[in-house]
Amino acid sequence: MPARGEGDRRARRRGGGGSPRALRPESATARRLRREMSLPEVLLGQRVRGAAAGVKFRRQHPVGPYVADFYCAATHTVEEVDGKAHGRGERPERDVSRDAFLRGHGYRVLHVPAAEILRDADAAADAIAAFAATPLHRPAAPGGPPPRAGED
Questions:
Q1: Strand 108-113's sheet: what is its strand order?
Q2: Residue 151, by phi and psi: left (phi above 0), alpha (psi -120 to 50) or beta?
Q3: CA 62 → CA 11, 108, 119, 135, distances in Å?
Q4: What whole-number distance in Å separates Cα of residue 112 and Cα of residue 47?
Q5: Local structure of 129: helix, strand or coil
Q6: Are strands 66-72 and 58-63 parallel, antiparallel or unpaired?
Q7: Is residue 31 part of a domain?
Q8: For the whole model, what pTM was predicted?
Q9: What is the pLDDT of residue 18?
Q10: Is residue 93 in some structural domain?
Q11: Structural domain of residue 121, as residue ranges?
């Protein structure tokens, strides 16, 4: 029994006390999906882990109300691994609405078929890293209009 006013030292040592931290539903889903990744996602994740690919990707990262398979914060890029389930039922319509949301909020979206990753994971990872490393804004075409004020 702790002395008066000292509280429970064991609970403090465990980081205890208070209510459990509440997670956004997307964050809880992302944590679950990280534990349940498919084989193509695992293979790709091993190859783009850290900054080994030249840009850093996060696995199963919440982006708005969705969870991206891979996300690069530096380049605002979302990479989705499309398995067989992406072509069934209502999934294609959900994918279209998710992509519209992401693009509408300034994200670039790249879809890679799971079969391509299983065939050659290194080539798929290289292609993804190359896509993510390309600049978001392309230089103006020669003879095109000048950039708007503040964009030069």
A1: 58-63, 66-72, 77-82, 108-113
A2: alpha
A3: 31, 15, 28, 23
A4: 14
A5: helix
A6: antiparallel
A7: no
A8: 0.67
A9: 59
A10: yes
A11: 39-133
Q: Which two tokens stand for residue 95?
A: 């994918």
Number of domains the chain is built from: 1
Q: What angle do CA 125, 129, 131 make, to 5 degrees?
A: 115
d(CA 93, CA 88): 10
Question: Which residue type occupies 90?
Answer: E
Q: What DSSP designation does 73 have?
A: T
CA 43 to chain centre: 15
Looking up residue 109, the CATH number of its domain turns out to be 3.40.960.10
Contact (CB, 8 A) for 63 and 71: yes
Residue 82 lies in a domain: yes
Q: Tokens 């000292």 label which residue?
A: 6
Tens digit of each residue's pLDDT (9 = 90 or more) over 47-68 = 887 665 577 888 888 888 888 8
Tokens for 83, please give them: 């398995």
Q: With b meaning 16 or more CB within 10 Å and e meaning fewer, what string describes 114-136?
A: bebbeeebeebbeebbebbeeee
Under 8 Å between Cβ of 130 and 108: no
- 46 within a domain of the structure (yes/no): yes
